[in-house]
Protein 1
Amino acid sequence: VTLTGTGATRTLQGSAITIGSTLAGGANSLTITGNLVTGGAITDVTNLSVSGSSSLGGDITTSGTQGYSGAVTLTSSVILTTSANTVIFSDILNGDGVSSRNLTVSVGASNITFTGAVGGSQGLGNISLTSTGTTTFTSTVNASAILQNSTSGTTAINGASINTTGGTQTYNNAVTLGGSADKTLTATTVTFNSTVSGAYGLAITGNAVFGNETADTVTITGSSKNLSVTGTTGIYTNSITTSGSQTFTGAVTVANATTLSASAITTGSTITASANNLTLTTDAISIGGNLTGTGALV
């Protein structure tokens, strides 16, 4: 399919609009009034909007925004790309259950918004995101792995849980904990390569890495909000502060001079600090294994 002319808005209306092969947009906007089914790539479209559900079986490239108002199902691994414009999923997003469907979204300096549950009824494969604006997860996520590629911008975790059991979660930009509930992240390893902040508790089921430099602080405010890690913990930041407790069940490695501030600090295994100073600011300490290092313990 080829959209003729340039700079106009083309509207396709029907109960279901099926594009079985490729669509070349000719630098026109495309409005789908109804449901959309694609089997090939959509390219050279300015803005794309779909009022109904979307079944996506090919990559989509737009210079402008992409807006999916209804439920989205991936029938293939899909790459969505804009030229620094938003991609908004206003409803749920699922795979089709045939195989793990990977999702790649790249918007440059703009925003990515997941309003509904991601992988709620059928989990996705790997999710790869590139946004130096704000990426927002408003609800729960179930996928094989998550990678936020951008080192600037923000990933806002506003839903209650992100589950990548058997896979990793890596956030290379700042993470905020918002919404209305404490957060549970489940993965083999959750890696935060920038700051973590918010007013909700954070429970990590798996291993955790906090920061890749000293400025990547962790600050959890709110009323008695806790931080817990069931696996091993690597601490590369110089500060982890919580309004509630901090619990590290597995071995802890302190890679920089670090201050842990909490109402209570509990470890279930060893702490290895090497030559790094470790400051514990708390009312209650329970150390479950050997603490070794040549730096100061305060």
Note: The CA atoms of residues 8 and 287 lie 67 Å apart.
Protein 2
Amino acid sequence: MSVYLIKSVGYAAFFLSMAALPKVKPSDAVIASKLVAAAMAQTKIKVSYDGSYRRLDYPGGDVPANIGVCTDVIIRAYRELGIDLQVLVHEDMKLAFKAYPQLWGLRGPDYNIDHRRVPNLQVYFTRVGVKLSVSQRAVDYHEGDLVTWMLPGNLPHIGIVSSDKSKTTGNPLIIHNIGRGPEIEDMLFAYEITGHYRWLPHKVIAEPRP
């Protein structure tokens, strides 16, 4: 990934605004399309917002299909591609627990809940090297990209960029669950963006960085 080092304060904002983020490779576009289709399918299912702690199977554990939170949209979409974030996050946390946020008073990883927490997903995606720059330009967000926000009340949130665009703003629509169940809407710039990731693994999953 290109890194733009700008020494001139006067021109920094200009060059940063013009710096293009990495383009999506054709092979990645296929994965992105499948990921988005899996997320879109969830919008057809009635899901009640429920983030309560539940004991899950491992691997492949999930809360009942009729409940979920924002992270469950992501987890379920990747599972349709054969990728289990429950396992990946848990195994990485066993290797580097201190690299993850210490916000919940835990002494070690917990595969029942860790992958369902936005801050943990942010760390995992950063550690596997798929973090991109946060941009205020709609064109920088591509189908299949993951975006995180901070909602009012310091509530972290995550969603998937779809292939559809708003007829009003031109912004890519986001598939997410903000409390009403999985839905697609124009909300990319509705809240403070805290992260931008493009994780489109094929056969080989990137190994987390030390």
Note: The longest strand covers residues 155-165.
